Amino acid sequence: MTTTTETPVPVFAEPELTPAGHSLLDAASELFYARGIRAVGVDLVALEAGTTKKTLYDRFGSKDRLVAQYLTRRGARWQHHVLEHLAAQPDPRRRVLTVFDALEEWHAGQDRGCAFVNAYAEVGAGDQATRDVVRQEKDWMRRLFVALAAGAGLPSPETSGASVHLLYEGALVLSTAGGHPSALTEARATAEALLAPSAPTAE
After folding, report:
1. Which of 161, 134, 143, 145 is CA-nearest to residue 12?
2. For residue 66, what are the contacts with CB-CB under 8 A and spacing of at least 6?
3. CATH class (in words) of the domain with range 19-195
4. C-alpha to C-alpha distance for 129 and 132, rounded to whole angstroms
5. In this predicted model, what pLDDT tens digit does every residue of 12-56 receive, in sequence order?
6. Region for residue 200 given its phi and psi (left: phi exceeds 0; alpha: psi -120 to 50; beta: otherwise)
7. Residue ranges of the DNA-binding region (predicted)?
8. What are the CA-CA distances from residue 197 to residues 99, 143, 200, 201 (Å)?
């Protein structure tokens, strides 16, 4: 079976909200990422948004649904960001590395790492909606790397792409939770080595 070289379409979209809903989601997004989901209550979100807890529940129904919307919007913006970078890179092999470059730019000034990993660590095991969003994002990244590996002409692109995805996800965790800030740079260098054309075998 031939592996597709087409980049996967985004699985997330910006939510359609009222102005008050946008204010609440903006406040929640900043607070959840900076302080953690469990540490932030709906009262604080409503206060920071300049609205009321009743409005929050009217717009989102529950804190769990607000968390899912926070991750969904972040996922939509991340996917748009990485696809923009890929569209500007015509070289098939460099496109694999472009994802790492897009991530470095995305995380500039953000010291808490991957919002999806953080959310799963906090609430994912106990909340179906959060778990589903996190797994959709991780599956999209895996499919993206497989498609890029196929486009780069790597042998066994399913395996090659999955290997680069493991590098990427592992580096995301190590760069923050593991206290290894150069992990993404090292993962990119390892991916670049995997992409290097094999030297011809001497006869």
Report:
1. 134
2. 24, 25, 28, 42, 45, 56, 60
3. mainly alpha
4. 5
5. 999 999 999 999 999 999 999 999 999 999 999 999 999 999 999
6. beta
7. 41-60
8. 20, 23, 9, 12
HEC letters along 131-164: HHHHHHHHHHHHHHHHHHHHHCCCCCHHHHHHHH
Domain boundaries, the chain: 19-195
pLDDT digits (tens, 9 = 90+) for 60-83: 999 999 999 999 999 999 999 999
Angle at 171 between CA 102 and CA 84, to 5 degrees: 15
- Residue 50 gets the label, from left (phi > 0), alpha (psi -120 to 50) or beta, of left
List Cα–Cα distances, 119 to 4, 67, 95, 134, in angstroms. Answer: 31, 9, 28, 8
Integer CA distances (angstroms), 141 to 17, 63, 182, in order: 27, 27, 21
113: left (phi over 0), alpha (psi -120 to 50) or beta: left
Single pTM value for the model: 0.92
Alpha-carbon distance values, 171 to 33, 121, 176, 185 (Å): 19, 16, 9, 9
